[in-house]
């Protein structure tokens, strides 16, 4: 999280909690649709309702859930569970990078207040809090409010899909595969910081494309992200950051 | 109604996936408690959001074919004009659904 010059130390307010919960409204419909598609996929793959809720409530990582269930092994052995763990790691290790950016914001909070909200890190919640932070916000409740709202939406999202699996057999008909790419693309627009963004973005995209061709699985996300960030670190620091 | 509790091996897999994901969510914050934030590190952190987004969607979009590329372009266009995340997501979905309904594949 970039710390603007005007930011005060992290604190908690009820208003921030509500404001944060409101901030994620634009992604709630997409989150519900994405969760619904996951519920439908699980019904087709013969998971039970409680197992589905285990994915939703405990794993709580939409993209990793999809990837894991799509490649779910016929027989679970120690080695096939290790493969699932590695798959989950390659998809979700981006949360590690997001979590790192919270140090400059939550760093003044005691650990027992700083760590629990981080369990609710999502792509959308993180990106929206980043925007809030860049505008000078420092209320930690803003992130927590958004996190709790998205978690609540996600927790119930699979249910209709699970029960309506037949009708949702091909989510592409409804454009559901576009929910996250479109949301990411929308948040790319405010993330642009002028010319200093160009090189890291080109590096991140180029490396991701190459890695996706040469390495199986989802390594391209983390390798591409890190390459972009490192290229920014190597540039001479003449931007206002 | 009795709920089927599910299979033990599936629950083991779910718990393992949960541990990996929780460690990812907490680990970066923990690590940065030991890394001094130099101007270089600051530039890297500032470049992260855009880099993560690009790395995650560039391969998906470029391999998705014309329908996906067009839908994403429409979503970005709407964002530039309207600055509305919800509208952007709905536009992306709508354009893709419509293009597929009238027979474009991808």
Please describe what this structure looks like.
The complex is a heterodimer of chains A (241) and B (106). Helix content of chain A is 68%, strand content 0%. Chain A is an all-alpha fold and 241 residues long. In chain A, helix 1 packs across helix 10 and helix 3 runs antiparallel to helix 10. Chain B has one domain. Helices cover 80% and strands 0% of the residues of chain B. In chain B, helix 3 runs antiparallel to helix 4. The longest helix of chain B is centred in the first third of the chain and has 25 residues. The termini of chain B are far apart. The model of chain B has no long low-confidence stretch (mean pLDDT 91). The interface between A and B is large, with 101 and 79 residues.
Write down the overall mean pLDDT of chain B.
91
Most extensive chain-chain interface: A-B, 101 and 79 residues
Overall 3D geometry of chain B?
flat
Order of helices and strands of chain B: HHHH
| Percent of residues in beta strands of chain A | under 5%
Based on secondary structure, the structural category of chain A is mainly alpha
Structural class of chain B: mainly alpha
Estimated radius of gyration of chain B = 21 Å
Q: Helix-strand pattern of chain A, N to C?
A: HHHHHHHHHHHHH
How many domains, in number, for the residues of chain A?
Answer: 2
Instruction: Give unreliable regions of chain A as ranges.
Output: none
């Amino acid at each position: 999280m970039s710390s603007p010059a005007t930011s005060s130390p992290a604190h908690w307010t009820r208003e921030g909690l509500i404001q944060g919960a409101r901030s994620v409204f634009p992604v709630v419909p997409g989150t519900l649709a994405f969760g619904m598609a996951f519920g439908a996929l699980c019904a087709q793959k013969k998971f039970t309702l409680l197992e589905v809720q285990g994915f939703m409530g405990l794993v709580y990582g939409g993209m990793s859930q999809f990837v894991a269930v799509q490649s779910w092994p016929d027989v679970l052995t120690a080695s096939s569970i290790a493969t699932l763990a590695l798959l989950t790691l390659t998809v979700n290790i981006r949360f590690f990078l997001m979590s790192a950016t919270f140090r400059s914001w939550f760093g003044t909070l005691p650990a027992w207040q700083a760590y629990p909200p981080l369990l609710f890190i999502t792509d959308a919640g993180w990106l929206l809090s980043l925007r809030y932070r860049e505008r000078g916000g420092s209320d930690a409740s803003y992130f927590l409010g958004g996190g709790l709202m998205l978690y609540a939406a996600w927790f119930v999202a699979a249910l209709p899909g699970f029960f309506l699996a037949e009708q949702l057999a091909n989510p592409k008909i409804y454009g559901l595969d576009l929910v996250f790419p479109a949301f990411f693309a929308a948040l790319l627009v405010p993330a642009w910081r002028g010319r200093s963004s160009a090189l890291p973005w080109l590096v991140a995209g180029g490396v991701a494309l190459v890695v996706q061709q040469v390495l199986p699985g989802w390594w391209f996300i983390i390798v591409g992200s890190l390459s972009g960030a490192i290229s920014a670190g190597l540039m001479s620091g003449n931007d206002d950051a | 109604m009795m709920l089927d509790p599910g299979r033990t091996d599936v629950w083991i897999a779910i718990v393992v996936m949960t541990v990996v994901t929780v460690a990812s969510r907490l680990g970066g914050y923990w690590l940065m408690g030991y890394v001094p934030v130099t101007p270089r590190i600051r530039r890297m952190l500032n470049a992260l959001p855009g880099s993560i987004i690009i790395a995650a969607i560039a391969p998906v979009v470029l391999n998705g074919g014309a329908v996906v590329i067009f839908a994403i372009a429409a979503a970005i266009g709407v964002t530039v004009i309207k600055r509305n995340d919800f509208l952007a997501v709905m536009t992306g979905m709508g354009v893709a659904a419509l293009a597929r309904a009238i027979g474009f594949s991808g």
